[in-house]
Amino acid sequence: MRISQPRRAYWIIIVSYLAALLLTIWPVPDWAEPFRPAWVVLVTAYWCLFLPHRVGVISAFIVGLLVDTLTGGLLGEHALALVLVAWVILRLHLQLRVYSPWQQTITLVLLMLLYTLIPFWADGVLGYTGHAVARWMPVLTTAILWPWVAQVLGRLQQRYQVS
Amino acid sequence: MAFASRQRAPSLFSSNPAGSLRTVLLIIASIALMFYDHQRGSLEQVHAALSALVYPVQAAVNAPYALVGWAQEKLATHVALVRENGELKQQELVQAAQLQRLVSLQQENDRLRSLMGASKEVPGRVVVAEMLGVDLDPFRHRVILNKGTADGVYDGQVLLDAQGVVGQIIRTDPLSSEAAFITDPSQAIQVEINRTGLRTLVVGTADVNTLSLPYLANNADVRVGDVLVTSGLGGRYPKGYPVGVITEVKRDPAESFASVTAQPSADLTHGHTVLLYFPVEKPAPLPKPEPAVKQPKARKTARRSRRP
Predict the structure, then answer these.
(1) What pTM, to 2 d.p., does this model score?
(2) Residues of B in contact with A80 (CB under 8 A)
(3) Which one of A119, B156, B223, B260 is separated from A48 by 20 to 30 angstroms, measured CA to CA?
(4) What ipTM was reported for this prediction?
(5) Who among B15, B30, B144 is closest to A80 (CB)?
(6) Arithmetic mean of pLDDT, B103-122
(7) What is the 3-state secondary structure (H, E, C) of chain B?
């Protein structure tokens, strides 16, 4: 019984990450483009918070590299950003778990600022400028979505007993 | 009970220095990747492997769009098809008439060029490629195409559409390739103003409908409505294809350069298909093709010339 559980766990984690990657490049109308939430941050945040012994900096690194490849960015920029986010959450996961959803949302705003800063900085070095305000929009949309995403992933985790 | 203790032990583990060491190593790895990726060519294999890994994701996202297109084709009514056929026939007639003029102009041009001792222009051929329906980084104007090295696509290949120059291939994989539009902030293209023959450089901006011409002197002969065509200098883009139309010219006496913007001729926001341009003879690979560095380099020289 206990042996079969970890196998189930991997599948639901991988499916959630796949969904996040699909949503990262899903075509949306031009006006909605700047508001696209950072889905991989939401998923990484959830698993690092509730399954820190399964999902950590290494999975964050791999997913970050996939995001870089999917979005055509510089290889490593989202990987670095996601590793930092995962590391902060792993460090604080015991405190963050007992926070109310509202407090977790505020924490996610701070984490998203960190996550957005790295590609912003890398693009600045490369000479990509402009759209300074639009770039920071996902900070808000991602944080706002957190309670719902946490609830959905929480249901999935309970239903399939991911641990 | 056993379960709880099993969960607690790894949590403690995750906050011990071993976790931090791992994180530091991954941070160093990321920065090294960014550094080497910026210097093109050294990470081709890594890119190829990762692209192959994410291709199913891209294909999955593209699938509904491909399906809708296929369904529209299959379910099109007879009336609509007849109407479209009529429209296309009319269009073809108009274009054939224009082509007649073009043929005689081309011959006249060839004659004049031979009189002047200039070399004859060689036309290339084109192959249709489709953009995958996926959104990339919104701050870079890039697309994934469904043709790769298996179809003969190569790095630096030029993309056209019915109206003008679209951009160039910046990365190739066996099944797909990545292209940058001319409006991508990393792109620059050698053009001449069709009316006067004045040569200059067009660079991309952050906006998909705007091109910038930062290196035109304040007294340069340029007007709103002037057509920009590729000059063929630089060896990347073929000569004589429309790039854009000047939309705004601002001259500030305090500045030595005019602020000129243009709108791209190619339809970059709507179209789904592009043309891959194959020159008759493939140009010799440029030493270290590095589109991201092109723009700063050009700026540097401009700055140098700005000094008295």
Answers:
(1) 0.74
(2) 27, 30-31, 34
(3) A119
(4) 0.85
(5) B30
(6) 77
(7) CHHHHHHHHHHHHHCCHHHHHHHHHHHHHHHHHHHHHHCCCCCHHHHHHHHHHHHHHHHHHHHHHHHHHHHHHHHCCHHHHHHHHHHHHHHHHHHHHHHHHHHHHHHHHHHHHHHHCCCCCCCCEEEEEEECCCCCCCCCCEEEECCCHHHCCCCCCEEECCCCEEEEEEEECCCCEEEEECCCCCCEEEEEECCCCCEEEEEECCCCCCEEECCCECCCCCCCCCEEEECCCCCCCCCCCEEEEEEEEECCCCCCECEEEEEECCCCCCCCEEEEEECCCCCCCCCCCCHHHHHHHHHHHHHHHHCC
